[in-house]
């Protein structure tokens, strides 16, 4: 159980969980920090990473777990939603703390890509060297490998080297959307953005076709053309050619990604809308939005989730377990993530168990490494399914602690040095 404490002093920390800076609108939020990181946010990430790993590793040992998750509660998807709410809470704060789009993207690159590229390289090496592990049928070594380095491969019909990487594509689209809003000066209109995305999820849920541009159904061109016109109008509001080009480029990626999404429109928009619900809750904690507004947007999210799942969800037969997730299964999963995030936010002034906070610190490694462990799948160990599961989970956690120490942290430190060098160059010029 979390223990109450006073405010923590913020120090330099990993920017994706650093405590938000105080604003002029209100005193500093009283969320507890440890070494400059928000404890409740790390605890949530620890929970999310653990349930995703437990779901995916457990499925390899018990078909019943797979069937239960498809019938009652999507445990892995719940963890992903918690991750997305956490990203929505802290990513815009990270950008606004820097107030520099280039610095923000330098930080994102060195935070995410070093570990991701290392994991992809190991997976590709395993495919090349092992007779037991082969690449998916039709995998194009050069083209598909390069595509998988972008993190946007989920928005194509090409194979994913790491199956869990589909969430990173949505994270990247969220970063791009936040950046576009920043260029337009609309980044603080988080409540409006969340409402537009949530209502659009309900209104547009079944009106467009999955993989629109690639498979080219009838009238496939309407979505990208409408997006291009909207971007041109938006770019006209931005001063400076460089900023206009940046807006058009990043906005185009968002439009093309949504036009080629692998999920129904309602699902994709619910994911993005939920991230902005997290942003709205952040703005409430620092006094930029009223509690009534934050509660209203959160409540709208809950309502739209129920209505969208009831209206647009189409179940599919899971071939191994034979179960078909219903709209109630999906609704419970989404609402469970909202409830856990909301409860942790209300308990943000309390101390959280150190092991859980540390697990959140290494959660990115846990998320990617458990997928790699699944790919490499070790031979069974004596003792049956429980022993196998324990071995897989232990390997994941130990490997994650090592990659955090020797890959993630050095990458972040290198990013900081790049940012510092850039600042020095800019200072010297002017």
Outline the structure in words.
With 430 residues, this protein is mainly α. The chain has one domain (3-210, 261-429). 68% of the residues lie in helices and 2% in strands. The chain has helices at 39-59, 63-71, 75-98, 101-129, 141-148, 166-184, 190-203, 212-215, 222-235, 241-259, 265-285, 291-312, 327-346, 354-361, 363-376, 385-429, and strands at residues 3-4, 33-34, 37-38, 350-351. The strands form 2 sheets. It has a two-stranded antiparallel ribbon. Strands 2-3 form a two-stranded antiparallel ribbon. It is globular.
Give the overall average pLDDT: 89
How many whole angstroms does the radius of gyration measure? 21 Å
Low-confidence residue ranges: 3-15, 21-28
Characterize the biggest β-sheet: 2 strands, antiparallel
Count helical runs. 16
Principal-axes geometry comes out as: globular
Number of strand segments? 4
Q: Which labels suit this protein?
A:
68% helix; two-stranded antiparallel sheet; single chain; two-stranded antiparallel ribbon; mainly alpha
Compact overview of the structure:
With 430 residues, this protein is mainly alpha-helical.
Layout: helices, strands, pairs:
Layout lengths: L2 E2 L28 E2 L2 E2 H21 L3 H9 L3 H24 L2 H29 L11 H8 L17 H19 L5 H14 L8 H4 L6 H14 L5 H19 L5 H21 L5 H22 L14 H20 L3 E2 L2 H8 L1 H14 L8 H45 L1
Antiparallel strand pairs: 1-4, 2-3
